[in-house]
Amino acid sequence: MRVLIRVILLEPEKSGNIGSVARSMRNFDLGDLWIVNPKTRINGEARAFAMRGLPILESAKIVTSFDQAIKDVDAVAGTSSVAARSSSNLSRVAITPKQLAERTSTSKGILGIVFGRESSGLNNQEVEACDFMVTIPASREYNVLNIAVAASILFYELFHRKAANQSGRASQPAKKRLLLQFDHLAAVSDLQPHKRRLAQRAFRNVISRSFISSREASLLVGIFRKASAKLGKLK
Fold first, then answer.
1. 130: domain range?
2. Mind listing the pLDDT tens digit for each residue in 150-177?
């Protein structure tokens, strides 16, 4: 069982935002929406903004307290536009959406993602209940994102990570084997030492930026191994 995502809106104040979050959830294959003590009606505006996310909006669970929404989840990720400036502020040390996706990609159970009030976010007690705090890097001049925009960015990172995992993306050990085999090939080549180092660095950069699959990595390892053996015999 992979991690299941529960989206929790805490005392939302604008019906359009509720609908927009439901629409974004539909875009990224999420379906479990919980709304805690809404401060607005879920009306025609919310339904209009939801578009094809309307079934998610209509099936949303409405509860009266934050504790009810998180009582059966395995981990809670809160969202905030304010990140800690120092690691001594433990309750406010934040990670990015991409880091959250990476940390939870192999997890199991339910992950609750909490979006606070449009006007004031999460209070200190609610932050303390979170296992992670997530913030989206933005301009220092104005770093407060609309809740639906923030939700879309976070949902995208989770969706992207899941898609990468399902596509058979090469694991870190597989990438390491590939890099080591390239290093061995470079070592038996006739390249000058400084050019060999540049080639190794360039290859590492290419691999780190790519979405190489396990099969592709395995094929390259085999090719590099045979090329290294042949070059070694020629010397």
1. 3-166
2. 999 999 999 988 766 555 667 778 888 9
